[in-house]
Amino acid sequence: MFYKLFKFLLIIILSYQTPLYSKSASFNEFNSRDLSNYFSGIIAYENRDNTNALKYFKLTKVLTDKHNGYLERYINSLILENKVPQAINVLNNNQNKSNSDFYDAYIILIIDSLKKNDYKKAEKYLKKSSKFQDESRFNLIIFETLRQYVYTFKNNKILNNKKNFGNLSLIAETFQRCYLNDKKTPSFFLNLINNQQSDYSRYIFFYLNYLIDNKKLNEAKVVADQINYIGSTILLSQSKSWISQEKFKKFNKIFSCKNHNDIVSEFLFLISNLYTSQDNFEKSNFYMNLSNYLNPKFKFNLSLVAENFYFNDEFAKVKKILKNFNKEDEFYYWFRVKTEAKIIIKEQDYENGIKYIESKFKKIEKPNIKMNFDLANFYKNSKNYNKAIKGYSKIISNLDDSSEIMSDLLYRRGGSYERLGNYEMADLDLLNALKINPYEAYTLNYLAYSWLERDYKINEAMEMLKTAYDLKSNDPYIIDSIGWAYFLIEDYKEAEKYIKRAVELMPEDPTVNDHYGDILWKLDRKIQARYFWNNVLTFDDTKDDMRKKVNIKVLEGLKNS
């Protein structure tokens, strides 16, 4: 009786008429074990436990050519576990069946065709995938860009694109010109790199690659000299290091514009990054693994997958990826060390995480400025402010005053002094940071908030906060600061305008909820005040000292009000 009921419910669930479940075979064809395993696979899949999902899907391969939903999930699980060749094999064996007709399947087959230099097949799959292009903006971008690339690779000329995706189209044309070794290639790279609206600094690497490939080593050195170790990505920092050591061959070993697979791989990396920016880590990893399939030489791109897994607390997978990065490439090795330390902090505590990164740091013969900076930040984040100050001071003493990172270093050291209660040194550093960069919103905010907390220079603090707000009017921390400033000068109605917005932007931030509770109490809305104070007590990241203070507020309200 139980089995019949289970089977009935499962059939209803699996046969629900969505595109994913339609055209399914009758489940009377399958035994209870198949159904149970498939159901377990679906649950694991929906819970983003892809490893277990794939395990169960493998046990129900009888469904491969019989159930639409199964094949799409099975293929996606294979890709997410970086088993791209297996996914391709399944699709090739099943491509004439109706249940192989889904967008991701065609993308995978296009990528495989490009891998095999079969442009004719790539065009065939592009044509079949065209009906899905309007399902989402990303689908359209992927389809059109792949269509352009295939045309260029096949015909050795650029396809005039009628659909413009802004800088994404510029990126595609830049790589097409690079592939064709067009004389305008340098100017296209520079247009990307110098873009004022978005950060396309990553393309400095590809520009350097192009220059080195064309024997323009002196030009490459000039470009590399402008890269800042602290403010740049790992890839750019590593690039600068390679050029300073004249390891020019490193560039071509991982990427070449002359290789069509490398170009499409980079495009897939871009798509992966876009999905990451939307917190869609599954789609991000899907395209990243396809990217890696096309160009496994560019192992450094795996750092994005590692970060995706880290954000989802899949630490075992992170550690496995990090093994790709060794001491030969010092910046990626340091990324590995930092990430391993962060995992230890998450799994254990700050003390053990700091011990780990210190032990690795001591073994590095000549730690660079980036390593020293990161270690100081680790100390600051672990509230070891004396060691943080020592670390920042070491870097500052080796820089000239005109260094573009001086302002940031003074800001961080000043914040460390402030945490120790050394307000004289804190103010000195923060004011000096503002002399260098008077319109740095976060420095203005930090110094002003510090003054307000000390009941010091209230009017000046208010002016600084107004400037910070003008610069970053959507930043919740700055909004909270200016709202709290109005609270301190007893303008509670004005305070509420800002703090209410800060709560909307950061609904689970303890400090913001605490501030809002205080303001509402002063506005004689005491029930609402206690509601927000109670919120503070429910948050996991509420510190013990705040928790004690808020508990008293809940019981007694604000004293002397």
Describe this structure in words.
The chain is mainly alpha-helical and 561 residues long. Among the domains are: 1-101, no CATH class; 182-228 and 237-254, no CATH class; 507-561, no CATH class. The chain has 31 helices and no strands. Helix 19 (330-347) packs antiparallel against helix 20, helix 21 (369-381) packs antiparallel against helix 22 and helix 29 packs antiparallel against helix 30 (526-538). The longest helix has 19 residues, at 137-155.
List the helices and strands and how they pair.
Blueprint: H1 2-14, H2 32-46, H3 50-58, H4 68-80, H5 84-94, H6 103-115, H7 119-129, H8 137-155, H9 167-180, H10 185-193, H11 203-213, H12 217-225, H13 234-244, H14 249-254, H15 260-277, H16 281-294, H17 302-311, H18 315-322, H19 330-347, H20 350-362, H21 369-381, H22 385-397, H23 406-419, H24 423-436, H25 441-453, H26 458-471, H27 476-488, H28 492-505, H29 510-522, H30 526-538, H31 544-556
Helix pairs in contact: 2-3, 3-4, 4-5, 5-6, 6-7, 7-8, 8-9, 8-15, 9-10, 10-11, 11-12, 12-13, 13-19, 15-16, 16-17, 17-18, 18-19, 19-20, 20-21, 21-22, 22-23, 23-24, 24-25, 25-26, 25-27, 26-27, 27-28, 28-29, 29-30, 30-31
